Amino acid sequence: MANRLSQIATRTGDDGTTGLGDGTRVPKSHGRIAALGDVDELNSHIGVLLAEPLPDDVRELLVVIQHELFNLGGEMSIPGYELLKAEAVLRLDEALAHYNATLPRLKEFILPAGTRSAAIAHVCRTVARRAERSVVTLAASETVRPEPRQYLNRLSDLLFVLARVLNRANLDGLGGDDVYWKSERLARDSE
Fold first, then answer.
1. What is the mean pLDDT of each run of 10 residues along the chain (191 residues)?
2. How far, in Å, CA of 153 to CA of 128, rounded?
3. pTM summary value
4. Alpha-carbon torsion (148, 139, 127, 102), positive or negative
């Protein structure tokens, strides 16, 4: 990887370009920068979620995820470089199976609501989906390994499940269950 930053205000981006980890410069509108930015934004939102009261096991998992997202971002910043391991995708699959096993089946669509921590997890989920779309868009024009896309896909699913877990954890006293969508059509059909 390139040298670590020793100063932040370099002014080298004033011309609308930015440096990749391998030293090449690309326009700030480049698809690789969009993917990198979306992954960085996701990691920042997870940092906000970590500032909330959380069950210890969820907190530990999210800290691991932050490190893996940093690896994913590093991989996005250096074309052809591999930092995110296939084991990271497997770890998300295992977490999905573990947390899904504790939840009741969904009866209806749910709203991204409930406790503050659950709502933040839903924001993280939507940013993970955007990051996934950015990686897919980048892969249409450049070689990108499948693991970053797979990781973001699983992570968005896991964040949905964790939002449900956090509503049930009820650590702020405002949750307890999913917030169900009240469909006018379904209400009419059940009459």
1. 52 60 70 90 98 97 97 90 94 97 89 91 98 96 94 98 93 77 64 57
2. 7
3. 0.86
4. negative
